[in-house]
Amino acid sequence: MNPLLLLRVHRGAATVLALLALSATLLVCALPRAFERSYDDALHGVLDDTAASLTDVTVEVRAPSTSALGTENAFAAGDRHFRGLLPAPVAQVMDHGPGADSHYGAKTIGTPVAGRLEGGARPYQYVDMAWLSGANRRIRYVAGAPPGAPVTLARVPGRPELTDVTLFEIALSKQASDKMGIPIGATLILGNSRPSLARVTGLYQALNPRDRYWQHNNDLLTVTVLRQPNLDAEELYITGLTSPQSLAKLSGEARALRYLWVLGVQNRALTARNAAPVIDGIGAYLRTIVTDANGPITYDPQIRIAPYDLDTALPQVLGKFLDRLSTAQTLMFLILGGLITVAVGVLALAVQLLAERMRSGLTLARARGASLRQIVLTGTGAVTLALVPSVLAGYCLTFAFPGPATPIVHLGPLLITLVTIAFTAARLAAGHRSPIEDRRDDVVARRPSPRRIALEVVVVVLALAGAYLLRTRGLTTQALRQGADPFLMLVPAALTVAAALITLRCYPYPLRLIVWAAARARSAVPFVGLTLAARARSVTSLPVLILLPALTVSVYGAVVGGALEQTQRLAAWQATGAAARVEASAELPTDVVERVRRVPGVQQILPADKGIAQVGLGGRTATVVAVDLDAYRRILAGSPLDPPHAAPGLPGAAIPALVSPDLAGMSSFEIGWHVRMKLTKAGVIREGLPGVSFTVNNLIVVPYDASKRAGFRTFTTMLLIAGQDIDGAKLKAATGNRRDILVSTFDESLRQVTATPLAGTIMTSFRVVTAALAVYALLTVIIALVIGAAERARALSYLRTLGLSERQASALTVLEITPLILLTACAGLLLGLALPAALGPAIDLSAYAGALTVGDYRLSPTTPVLLAAGLAAVSVLGAFLHARFGAHRSLGSALRVGE
Q: pTM here?
């Protein structure tokens, strides 16, 4: 027997198998690559948006009283030493290329300016000195010259108290020179005890202020302004650059001096796969350097603790990302698992189609003396010849898709090949165990074997146990971060398989009741069609195992996607408080309000006032919001926000107020705001005013004209705007682009929420997978019908000789498959609607919804029902088209099939 001959004779079925194998391989290999790339892109976006001072690894040490590191070479040796201690996972993500922000150096901290030799000193100024590697190639001097070597002055004219003092040369940023009034040539007296001198020789500007290098050293470019609570003046801080020769004169004896080595991290080298090892590596590195006895700084070995400090937030940044990633991976695993299950199921149907086509030839060979081994090898060989080239082609094509190649990319095609060949061999061995044993499976229903029932019960029990554990334990263990539990990540897919098995076992029983009712009808078509459906062969029942996961994943995606989208919109509304909001700490000018009113898209403006007021005569303060709540409710009509109703009016001149629960114990009280006013509690506001006030405690809401009622006038510090398509840029331009005026719009807030890393990946994946599942659902029904097409055509031809019309024959075929599809659709719809509640808090989507909990899966079944109905309609359409095309065959050709 020649497998090539079988393949050539049944090339149509072989082509179907080859195409489905190609698609399954592409799904198994390409989708994980796409997902991993989206994970990496999301991580890189997080790292790029995080300051380098947080993601880089910085080793710091307080300089000893003597000059321990007096040369640039000593710092370079320390850099090599600390890099040599890095664990391998961390060392692999370090940035060594040109332009990297890695550097080392020395900085003084908090050095006050005690005076100037030229006079005219200004108080509350602090000037530190720093030498940093790589700084000179990142700046350009706009005036003066770079600093030179320090000198020691035996005495300073006019300053008898300054003897044997060191004179350093420094350069300042142009912005610091202008703001602090320190020109070129100025000589500063640094420090109150053991002072030194610093002469300004040059002014510089950064070549690229956005260079991540300056995120570590912004104190060299920008003046830091601090206001102490007990001072009315502002303290100004700046750091000036000095020469490498100054290192020999800098020590920790006279100044607070710190040495630092910044080990830059290459963001693109970090991936979702090496993030966890890097976190562990940072922890190991910390344990190493605190006991490092061979570092650049010597210390007393009896202390047993090295003086080095490790400063990095990289573990926290990566840990937060991995927490968000675990949810995304579970969702991706769910939809990918459902899609692969459906794809493999359709592939199994294609194998059965080819086996059915080869059955007559293999049965004849078996009757003529061929052994079971020869039959299995021949049939399996034909399937292998159709399968392997397609799998290899799909595997090669996946390398055209961007993304890293994870182990599943290499193991997936092998597993598909082995599982398909094993399934083919098992089916052929079971079907040809005895020579010429022809059965009519459509006449009597076959009883399932006890082993099969036991296996199905085990699957159902494991799925239910996994769902319980998923709700109680979540996706990770209660101990350390170990990553997602593979068993628990398989639970959603296991639940769909369990539901499919239950549906497969239970669907004949309600059908028999319908058959009993159809037997009393005058037409025989419903009775015959439903009887065939109730006694469906395994090859016809197999679509349940394919269609139900497809429907479940699609419905689940619609429910979760809808809930996530609603919560994202709610988060955007809560962040803005209206379609747009303009807020200032001081009163908004009238001309600004009028310009805002003329911005395109603005329909209505509601003025409001917000500030901090003193409660009573003590030191307690509260946030006070003066707003017309009834008008506010009107401009929020149709939004998910539900502000409280306005406080009811009170007799006389009493001013009603809504207060937070912590203030509810006071029936009436005074506040000192624009004017002192006495308020009377008229209600309690428990959830604050999202978008207007972000506090839920110490909150007081009064009418907008409360200050006017108290004998003063109204103030406007906030504008709550109703409108459509309001451009945030135009709104900011209307306010004069003032930094003290905050402008926010709903559209901008929504973009910020939806731009959360991985949120777009989740929503896009649900849509793509739903479309792919619809295609597979159509293929499932068509292939299942084609498998039994020959026997069905012969049976229908016999019935047509008895008077069955072509229209009735088509209806009979549709009735045979429709009950199974409808029951499967109902089961998939119910499971898809129940999965969000079943999985419970194990899948936390709050990271993608502005930190709001996505737990209120409101039952809005319109979209899921339409989706399930659409997939069912597609499947029924496939059955109808197959019936219509098959109805045109001549009776003679149908009756000769198999004879």
A: 0.76
